[in-house]
């Protein structure tokens, strides 16, 4: 989750988020090189005393400064397109989970198992434990196994919502009457926090998302316990 003085992206919890972080660094390095080069050229123009009164055209330099930006854009576009296709790839899922957005809470259904569905409300500040996170903790967390391919299906019961967890590189719209899906893989255990990122009404800020990533054996025990309840 995001903390104070955090200037970079959150630590990734999925292979896709790792690739997005690498692409972010790659693009920033290109931008830094362009900024340094242009800054150096502009400062040299300001401070040198050379001039060439008969300069009318420079076809060679014009070709160079047309081709170089095109090559630079190719170096940014190719990894970007690769990532776009990877983000939309739907692999064979081990677990499917359905999330339904309401005003203003989330409902979860584990469609692979019988009778596992629950609502997830934000814990009010007055009831929050000292170890809890204000405006981020919920009473019922969505539990998923790590190192397993997850298929998330998202819809809404009333207005537009958006199911978003930055650490997993997941941001998917919850639209009434439409079922959207996204695939991701958790590569470590932990708690991962997110929020609705679509302005959906008065309490838009108070419908957080919490994913608890646990090992597959403990996930099976959790499923058995929830099935008996």
TrEMBL record:
Binds a copper A center. It is a multi-pass membrane protein. InterPro entries: CcO_II, CcO_II-like_C, CcO_II_C, Copper_CuA, Cupredoxin, Cyt_c_oxidase_su2_TM_dom, Cyt_c_oxidase_su2_TM_sf. The chain crosses the membrane at residues 20-42, 63-87. Residues 92-225 form the Cytochrome oxidase subunit II copper A binding domain. Keywords: Copper, Electron transport, Magnesium, Membrane, Metal-binding, Mitochondrion, Mitochondrion inner membrane, Respiratory chain, Translocase, Transmembrane, Transmembrane helix, Transport. The keyword Electron transport applies. Its cofactor is Cu cation. One of its GO terms (molecular function) is cytochrome-c oxidase activity. The keyword tRNA-binding does not apply. Gene3D superfamilies: 1.10.287.90, Cupredoxins - blue copper proteins (2.60.40.420). It is found in: Mitochondrion inner membrane. Its main location: mitochondrion. One of its GO terms (biological process) is ATP synthesis coupled electron transport. Belongs to the cytochrome c oxidase subunit 2 family. Component of the cytochrome c oxidase (complex IV, CIV), a multisubunit enzyme composed of a catalytic core of 3 subunits and several supernumerary subunits. The complex exists as a monomer or a dimer and forms supercomplexes (SCs) in the inner mitochondrial membrane with ubiquinol-cytochrome c oxidoreductase (cytochrome b-c1 complex, complex III, CIII). This is Cytochrome c oxidase subunit 2. It comes from Dorcus curvidens.
């Amino acid at each position: 989750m995001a903390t104070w003085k955090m200037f970079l992206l959150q630590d990734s919890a999925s292979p896709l988020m790792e690739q997005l972080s690498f692409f972010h660094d790659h693009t920033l390095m290109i931008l830094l090189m362009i900024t340094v080069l242009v800054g150096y050229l502009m400062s040299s123009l300001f401070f040198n005393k050379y001039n060439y009164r008969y300069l009318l055209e420079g076809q060679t330099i014009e070709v160079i400064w047309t081709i170089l930006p095109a090559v630079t854009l190719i170096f940014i576009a190719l990894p970007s397109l690769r990532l776009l296709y990877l983000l939309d790839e739907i692999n064979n899922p081990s677990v499917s989970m359905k999330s339904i957005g309401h005003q203003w809470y989330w409902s979860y259904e584990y469609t692979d198992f019988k009778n596992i569905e629950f609502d997830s409300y934000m814990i009010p500040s007055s009831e929050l434990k000292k170890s809890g996170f204000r405006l981020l903790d919920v009473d019922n967390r969505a539990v998923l196994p790590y190192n397993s391919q997850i298929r998330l299906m998202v819809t809404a019961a009333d207005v537009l919502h958006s199911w978003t967890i930055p650490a997993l590189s997941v941001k998917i719209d919850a639209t009434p009457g439409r079922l959207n899906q996204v695939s991701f893989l958790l590569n470590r255990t932990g708690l991962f926090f997110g929020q609705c990122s679509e302005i959906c009404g008065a309490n838009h800020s108070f419908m957080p998302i919490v994913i608890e990533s646990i090992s597959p054996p403990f996930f099976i025990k959790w499923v058995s316990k929830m099935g008996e309840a």
